[in-house]
Amino acid sequence: MKNFSIIIHGGAGTLVKGLMTEALEAKYKAALQDARDKGYAVLENGGTSMDAVETAVKSLEDSPLFNAGKGAVFTHTGTHEMDAAIMDGKTLEAGGVSLITGIKNPISLARDIMEKSDHVFLAGKGAMQFAKSQNYTLESPEYFYDEVRYQQWQNIKDSDKFELDHSVKKDGKFGTVGAVALDSFGNISAATSTGGMTNKKWGRVGDSPMIGAGTYANNATCAVSCTGSGEYFIRGVVAYDVSCLMEYKGLSIEEATSEVIQNRILKIGGDGGLIAVDAKGNIAMPFNTEGMYRAFRKSNGEMDIKIYKES
Questions:
Q1: Which residues does 277 contact at the CB level (< 8 Å), separation at least 6?
Q2: Residue 181 C-beta-side C-alpha neighbours within 13 Å
Q3: For 32-45, b where at least 16 C-beta lie within 10 A, e where not — what string?
Q4: What digits encode the pLDDT tens for the residues 241-258?
Q5: Environment class of 177 (CB within 10 Å of its CB; exposed 0-12, middle 13-18, buried 19+)
Q6: Residue 77 among the catalytic residues
Q7: Is this structure's pTM higher than 0.90?
Q8: At what angle do helices 106-116 and 49-61 cross, to 10 degrees?
């Protein structure tokens, strides 16, 4: 049996140790562990990396602690607009969805777009029509409501400000979620899901659902899921840039991810992090912020859950 592994993230940002209560930190770690272990169980039972990343991300979408699915932030008009993407490193097939509302697990809709439509990326009304054609049940706005998210929106809704999941506001750390995995067949996959930014306007879309920007997977190189300042990750085509550095310059996954996160994205003013795995099971979890919710587990027994740089 070949080795297999999974990594997940719950967002990067200004996560300063000491500003979070022990009880809340324990809740985050428990949610990360649950998602990681659900994804790992899929791999352990001989499942595919696609099934593993979807399972892990669905678990994070179902937790109000993170800015995806149930915990999605409020837009300027008081709604929830969610984005997600998934990619199969074996076939390079991918699915992305953006600007959807009422969908409990956007990551599953992204996979259905990949597998059941002739397209890669659907958005807005059209994406909702596709969801209905696949018999998705729409949840009411109350399902997605979270008091903390609501108060975040109340604080800035009458202004032109917006808040990213990693903004400098110390009590506003709620992030994009993602997962990458290597299965026992030697295939890798990536998945990312987000509720975007608080008080966002005009149908803003970040990097998460864009193949190559926030999500990418290719068996020849790596699987990547990003979190951070979306506009900069789009401009830097970050997920694909990591793959390119591995493919064309021969860099290792650690070297490539470090170059992109610690150098290239910073040069254009962006911040954040990513998780990545290659077809040999090597992993990387770099970030240039004070913290990133992250966890991994490998078939050789290695595992960990971290929030801050030093832990």
A1: 5, 6, 7, 180, 181, 182, 188, 222, 223, 253, 283, 284
A2: 37
A3: bebbbbbbbebbee
A4: 999 999 999 999 999 999
A5: buried
A6: no
A7: yes
A8: 150
Report whether pLDDT(307) > 80: yes
What are the residues facing 180 on neighbouring strands?
7, 190
For 175-199, the pLDDT digits (tens) are 689 999 999 999 999 999 998 766 5
- Across the chain, which distance is largest between two alpha carbons, in Å? 57
What's the CA gap between 287 and 60, in Å, rounded? 20
Q: How far apart are CA 53 and CA 58, in angstroms?
A: 8
Share of the chain above pLDDT 70, in %: 85
Which among 176, 192, 198, 215 is annotated as catalytic? 176
Let me know how long the chain is: 311
Which token pair is 223? 């699987």
Whether pLDDT at 267 is above 50: yes
| Cα–Cα distance measured from residue 157 to residue 264, given in angstroms and rounded to the nearest whole number | 33
Model confidence over 202-228: pLDDT tens digits? Answer: 788 989 999 999 999 999 999 999 999
Distance CA 38, CA 15 (A): 25
Tokens of 249: 């310059």
Q: How far apart are CA 52 and CA 61, in angstroms?
A: 14
The three-state DSSP-derived secondary structure of the chain is: CCCCEEEEEEEEECCCCCCCCHHHHHHHHHHHHHHHHHHHHHHHCCCCHHHHHHHHHHHHHCCCCCCCHHHCCCCCCCCCCEEEEEEECCCCCEEEEEEECCCCCHHHHHHHHHHHCCCCEEEHHHHHHHHHHCCCCCCCHHHHCCHHHHHHHHHHCCCCCCECCCCCCCCCCCCCEEEEEECCCCCEEEEEEECCCECCCCCCCCCCCCECCCEEECCCCEEEEEEECHHHHHHCCHHHHHHHHHHHHCCCHHHHHHHHHHHHHHHCCCCEEEEEEECCCCEECCECCCEEEEEEEECCCCEEEEEECCC
